[in-house]
Amino acid sequence: MSSGRALSRAFFVGAALAVGLASAGLAQLRPSLPALASLEPGLWQLRGEGEARRTLCVADPYSLIQLRHGATQCSRLVVASAKSSATIHYSCPGAGWGRTTLRVETPRLARIDTQGIADNEPFAFVAEARRIGPCGERFSSDR
Predict the structure, then answer these.
(1) What is the pLDDT of residue 140?
(2) Going by DSSP bridges, is the β-strand pair 75-81/109-118 parallel, antiparallel, or unpaired?
(3) Residue 80, SS3?
(4) What is the C-alpha to C-alpha distance for residues 5 and 18, in angstroms, rounded to an integer?
(5) Helix (H), strand (E), coil (C) string for 94-131
(6) What 3-state class would DSSP assign to 17?
(7) Mean pLDDT, to the nearest integer, of 119-143?
(8) Residue closest to 76 by CA, chosen among 63, 59, 85
(9) Does this model's pTM top 0.70?
(10) Gap between the Cα atoms of 66 and 28, Å rounded
(11) What is the pLDDT of residue 41?
(12) Quick check: 89 and 63 in contact, CB under 8 A?
């Protein structure tokens, strides 16, 4: 094989690898998690020991993964995924990190165990998340 042909083949193999890695990176931003897919969107109430009760509109169950980091752009690594549970480690450049285990009891009831660093402070809490109805035009973020 000529060196030109070998170089061309190496280029295409490298390009295919780069596209594959980019696709894998995008998948990590939004990994497929059966446990989260089973949760119903709507108005959810979070109750945790030592935490103020919170009510939030959950249009996308993925928002339950990073409760302390909200809509911050974070990379995610799936540590474990099963039909009724998932553990995700996430890292948010400049904002901290977290590790969340979400266990789904029913499509309207889940247990969230999360810990990490937010605002340069450690956090750790366990909460029961319960769907209490559809999202309305008005709801309180803290009840």
Answers:
(1) 45
(2) unpaired
(3) strand
(4) 20
(5) CCEEEEEEEEEEECCEEEEEEEEEECCEEEEEEEEEEE
(6) helix
(7) 81
(8) 63
(9) yes
(10) 14
(11) 95
(12) no
